[in-house]
Amino acid sequence: MEHLVQPGSFIWRWISDEWLISKSASLCFGLSVLVIVWMSVVIVSGLEPEAVGATANVLLGVGGVLGAISVFFLWGGMWRYWARHSSQSPRARGAWFFVLLVGAWYGAILYYSFVYLPGREKPSPGTGNE
Fold first, then answer.
1. Does the residue 104 lie in any domain?
2. Which domain holds residue 31?
3. Distance from C-alpha of 18 to C-alpha of 30, rounded to nearest angstrom
4. Structural domain tally of the chain?
5. 17, 85 contact by CB (below 8 A)
6. How far is CA 61 from CA 4, 33, 54, 65, 68, in A?
7. pLDDT for 21-50, tens place per residue?
8. CA 6 remoteness from chain centre
9. How confident is the model at residue 84 (pLDDT cuts 50, 70, 90)?
């Protein structure tokens, strides 16, 4: 699976697997989840830029940039975790592959919540990580 092309692989090849399962990585992924959810709510709400002030527009612009970065960071990180650290059954791995592929960053949010968070506390088979 070393040659699996994944979203954001140009970033993830510079980041170690040890960091991927660290507490700081978990916090960064969690922050990404919050940014994505917040920006999704803003977009769905149909907020008109003309209806808010200049300060709110700046905050929305910053949120948009952070949201775009968060999408690729979270999605790429969950793909990497799936490829290298998942110890699930082949059927579960196949189901999560589908969720990550079709669900994109929303699938990555589900994967983060239901697989990454509970699984990063356990050592991965063959990696020797705590």
1. yes
2. 16-119
3. 17
4. 1
5. yes
6. 33, 18, 10, 6, 11
7. 899 999 999 999 999 999 999 889 887 767
8. 12
9. confident
